[in-house]
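Just scan this pair:

***
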Amino acid sequence: MADNNADNAWQLTAATLVALQSMPGLVLLYGGLAKKKWAVNSSLMAVYAFAVTLICWVGWGYRMSFGDRLTDFLGKPAPALDDGFLMGQAFLGSFPAATMVWFQFVFAAIAAVVVGGAVVGRMRFAAWMAVVPLWHTVSYTVGAYSVWNGEGWLAKMGVIDFAGGFVIHLSSGVAGYTAAFWVGPRSDSDRKRFPPNSIVMTLAGAGLLWMGWTGFNGGAPYAATAIASLAVINTHVCAAASLLTWLLLDMTLSGKPSAAGAVNGVISGLVCITPAAGLVQCWAAVLIGLISGSLPWYTLHRVALLRRVDDPFAGFHTHAVAGALGGVLVGVLAEPELCRKFYGEAAGGGGKYVGLAYALGGSRQTSAGVRQVGWQIVGVVFVVCLNVAVMTVICLVVRVFVGLRMSEEEMEMEMEMEMGDEEVHGEVAYGIDDQSRFLHAKLNSIYDADEAAISKTPTYQMHRV
């Protein structure tokens, strides 16, 4: 198949949109959502994860995910670095392999960044430096090969994951939650009070994340087709419905619409539609949005058991719960004709890619739809078990050789200036703000030193009034 310049241009554009979701999208979102003293720490964790994942990806990760078969759940490790490979034809799509390597990398990178959101403010940075490449190598590549590689066992079974609800969001949400369990909670003072240091910055990051999802789901067909267009509109409709649902539920709980809640709502909607984006009708995207804005909200606010693990950015609810939910819902709502356009002749064969709602309401056997839902549940269980097991082993190994958790002194460095970032990284997020507070303190000391004399001046009296 010859290269198609239009498809190649769209694929490169879509990949760059997804890259912007991490850099700077999640950097801004995490940096704004974190308490001020951890703004640098949370942002730098995201930047590091993006960079080291790229080196792993071209070194061995891409071929382990999309290369030749080693087992039913893993490809043969090999580099994707030489011109002969990168300039050759991609295994899917009408563009060079280099484009596919770049596109699939940005998916792998955002998965690692999401994991980091669960452990900010207490995992040692040296530990994070070890966790990311280990998790990428032992977990992410296994999930990607199993679900997306044509030789993967879940792919052969017929599991539907249009753009990464299982491979990216369910896996990263569960892995992050597991890591949070092993590293332990934040300091007592941080758990009691952890205000976002910049809601505006958080919303800006969420906006980049939302708009970047155009490439996330729109790039999944590997071509500039009608399915890509449908995936894009379904993505945004679902996100909007989810955001509005979450906001309304927040208002019933507290009487006030929450900006942080709006961010959680839109992320839940984007994650939940991802397994289904180009395979469901637009009315189904609205329905998915209503569900994604309510069930993850419920698990976050009403399931006390889940709060025993300290998950500061609610990644388990917005990624793991929403990803699993979307994975099951696509088994119900996948439209057979859309599946045929996406999967080709494989759709419908052996009862594959038939949503339960259409199996019940049409001429197809009901068993085909039930089977599809069953396969989707198998996919959820596999990804959950894989990431719990792998991340547990990684954390235990890193704890022995590197140490997982910051010292109590590093975590408790609050005082007046909240210098946790300075203690860990030697830097602070807002140097100008700290200088202003220093000058303010100096002025106060001057006033206190000569209060009696200053209080007699007309200017001071006016200021006091």
The radius of gyration is 24 Å. Residues 459-465 have pLDDT under 50 and may be disordered.
